[in-house]
Amino acid sequence: MEMLSGADMVVRALQEEGVEYIFGYPGGSVLHIYDALFQQDKVSHILVRHEQAATHAADGYARATGKPGVVMVTSGPGATNAITGLATAFMDSIPMIVLSGQVRSDWIGDDAFQETDMIGVSRPVVKHSFMVRDPKDIPEIFKKAFYIATTGRPGPVLIDIPKDHTAPNKTFPYEYPKKVKLRSYAPVTRGHSGQIRKAVEELLKAKRPVIYAGGGVVQGEASEALTKLAHKLNFPVTNTLMGLGAYPGTDRQFLGMLGMHGTYEANMAMHSADVILAAGARLDDRVTNSTKKFCPGAKLIHIDIDPASISKNVAAHIPIVGPVRQVLDEMLAMLDEQDSEPDHKALERWWQEIDGWREFHGLRYETNENGPMKPQQVVQALYKATDGKAYVTSDVGQHQMFAAQFYKFDRPRQWINSGGLGTMGFGLPAAMGVQFAFPDAVVACVTGEGSIQMNIQELSTCLQYGLPVKIININNQALGMVRQWQDMQYGGRHSQSYMESLPDFVKLAEAYGHVGFKVEKFEDLEGAMNEAFSLKDRLVFMDIYVDPTEHVYPMHIADGAMRDMWLSKTERT
Amino acid sequence: MRRIISILMENEPGALSRVVALFSQRGYNIETLTVAPTEDPTLSRLTMTTTGDEYKIEQITKHLNKLIEVVKLVDLTEGAHIEREIMLMKIKATGAQRAEVKRTVDIFRGQIVDVTATVYTVQLTGTTDKLEAFINAIGETQVLEVVRSGVSGIARGEKVLSL
To answer: Given B25, B55, B68, which is nearest A185 (Cβ)?
Structure first.
């Protein structure tokens, strides 16, 4: 049998798993592994400027490709800097492997230099974690880690490796396992056919149905099945923030996003529905508003791979635990075989009602005749300049909601944002991960002057690897979403939400070796966008000044029902 | 409602901490907890008692099942079961009290496992209710120290929790 050092085993295992990129930052406890990486050329290491960015870049790569993102960090601060990225991936069920160095095994527990109990610190934000206790276990641990991260409800898996277990002078027999043996982990592979049949019967009887699809449809590669089912039944579809792109954003049957900042029509349709098919969505608080008042007349059919997501927030009438694609495919097959039709007459009336809601609001906003431009206009200009085809990553706040509302995503994996954790600083490193996965694709990072400064150092990484990401900095000189809440709930007292002393982002971009544009007038926007996207091999930082007083609407009225919304600063339902 | 959840899990370092951490992360209570390896040294059996309504217990069992190291689990209180807890207790035993304590121990079918001139050390096995009844019968003023194992449980009849 082949004899390898622990460090070489780590690198070989990554090769066996088909890893193209590993995002990381070196340090004392992982130096043996870095040396092993140096001596091969199958796995490319991407040097970030902060470990948090490594995790978000790997996360962006994973969201864009469906393959696990891989990260390597050193012990102590390197590892703890990866926590936010682990938590981000955990909340959004993103497959990720984080390798963290650890102090040598005989020093563990002695408060050694750069020692942190990473298994302990990361425990609540990983799907699982392993500590390498014997170098011989490395192949099996890696096999299990990749399997766990990518199957069932995906999630991040941490592998903590003490430095002495990767020492180059100690070798051990190496054989990469072909199969995983895990008696205690068996994700569901099929939904219960009886439940699926019951669900199909409900769908056929429905008079006011809504399909409510989430990130599980994207992760579970079920977009095609979902679209087929919706078309076949002529049912309206709404997507969660995580689900955008799972159903084509420009399709007639698409109602837009639902929830706290969802469209009027999506929220009204949900509230008035008699049957809701929730697919790969978890009825979280940003969607439901008060669960007590949630969709009072609706029967809930809930498909999810994770049994713990079902009936957690809202009780399901027909729970179906299973992979969403398989369940939707089986529904389609049942519909074909029964040759039954939905209630066309009722659906016609339902669509009339929905079209009325669409006309009533339809994401309208007021523009300023001579004053500053609106953030919505920026997203619409971006949509136009990129022909609706760009990968769009975002940070967190108002700009994220405007991007979600106004960029019509037609493909799954096209929209990449931190939905569950809401991590500011996610956008730029995530865009890097996407650009590595698809070097020729157009990648735009929609961000704000608050969020972008949380990982701005990655401009340096972008220069090193020639990543032509386009940064759309929607600059309202304020932490917009915080400010909006302060306007609405705190009497307009803008406590700490004002961004004073902003840098000159154009000069900053130039200092990092990139191109910077400043746009202050709406009439310059389209031209500047077109120019930016014509610079195909350059990163362009577009610093776009917008109206600081703008709010995101619709907005749920707290503790109300789905239909209770603010529609503008002065109108409510 | 009080529940006894019995878990079969991998006997690996870190497994127990995941189970315990889950309870604090998600705001569930642990009232008692016992854990030890089974006849198969690769498996541990963990028994815990907790309280909650149907909804909460369902969430607890679902989340426990999601832990990679949890192999199987059962809510023993769903069916007929046997539960036991062992208690070791130091009791003041002087003067007239000495005989009285001995009588109470006998009534509860406990054993005196250590004796000094002033103290009895008593061992008692039974359900949680029985142990509490004994503490009440002895009276708090007499009790010097109490050590309880936490509840262990097993289903009645032929039902087994195994691989």
So the answer is: B68
Whether residue A571 lies in the annotated active site: no
A115 is catalytic: no
- Rounded-to-integer distance, Cα A528 and Cα A519, Å: 7
Catalytic residue among A51, A115, A330, A550: A51
Q: Is residue A334 part of a domain?
A: yes
| Cross-chain Cβ contact B17/A185 below 8 Å | no
The architecture CATH gives domain B82-152: 2-Layer Sandwich (3.30)
Active site residue A51: yes
Shared domain check, A21 and A100: yes
Q: Give residue-wise pLDDT tens across range A378-399.
A: 999 999 999 999 999 999 999 9
A337 among known catalytic residues: no
* Pairs of CB atoms within 8 A across A/B: 35
- The number of beta carbons lying within 10 Å of the beta carbon of residue A65 is 17
In this predicted structure, what is the pLDDT of residue B81?
A: 97
CB contact under 8 A, A308 and B71: no
pLDDT of residue A338: 84
Kindly report the backbone phi and psi dihedral angles of residue A35, in degrees, each rounded to the nearest multiple of 5, phi listed first: -65, -40
What pLDDT is stored for residue A371 in this prediction?
A: 86
In a domain, A564, yes or no: no
Q: Which domain holds residue A257?
A: 193-360
The answer to whether residues A453 and A503 belong to one domain is yes
Do A168 and A199 belong to one domain? Answer: no
Interface confidence, given as ipTM, is 0.92
Residues of B with CB under 8 A from a CB of A: 9-10, 13-14, 17-18, 21, 25, 55, 58-59, 62-63, 65-66, 68-71, 163
Contact B62 A148 (CB under 8 A): no
Does residue A369 form part of some domain? no
Tell me: do A242 and A115 sit in the same domain.
Answer: no
Same domain for A35 and A156?
yes
Distances A200 to A116, A179, A192, A329 between C-alpha atoms, Å: 51, 36, 12, 12
Per DSSP, A337 falls in state: H
**One fold for B2-79 and B82-152:** yes
Measured distance CA(A408)–CA(A351) in Å, rounded: 21
Give yes or no for a contact between A71 and A89, defined as CB atoms under 8 angstroms apart.
no
Number of domains in chain A: 3
pLDDT, one tens digit per residue, over A501-545 is 999 999 999 999 999 999 999 999 999 999 999 999 999 999 999
* Closest Cα in chain B to A186: B68
Statement to judge: residues A221 and A258 lie in one domain:
yes
User: Of the residues A242, A481, A529, A562, which is catalytic?
Assistant: A481
Q: What does the pLDDT look like over A311-329, one tens digit per residue?
A: 999 999 999 999 999 999 9
As beta bridge partners, residue A23 has A46, A71
Strand segments, DSSP code E, in A26-176 are 44-47, 69-73, 96-102, 128-131, 156-162, 171-173
For residues A28 and A149, membership in a common domain is answered with yes
Name the residue facing B68 among A133, A184, A308 (closest C-beta): A184
A479 lies in some domain: yes
Which residues of B are less than 8 Å from A306 in CB distance?
66
What's the angle, vertex CA B87, arms to CA B85 and CA B92, rounded to 5? 160
Q: Does A369 score more than 90 pLDDT?
A: no
CATH number of B2-79: 3.30.70.260
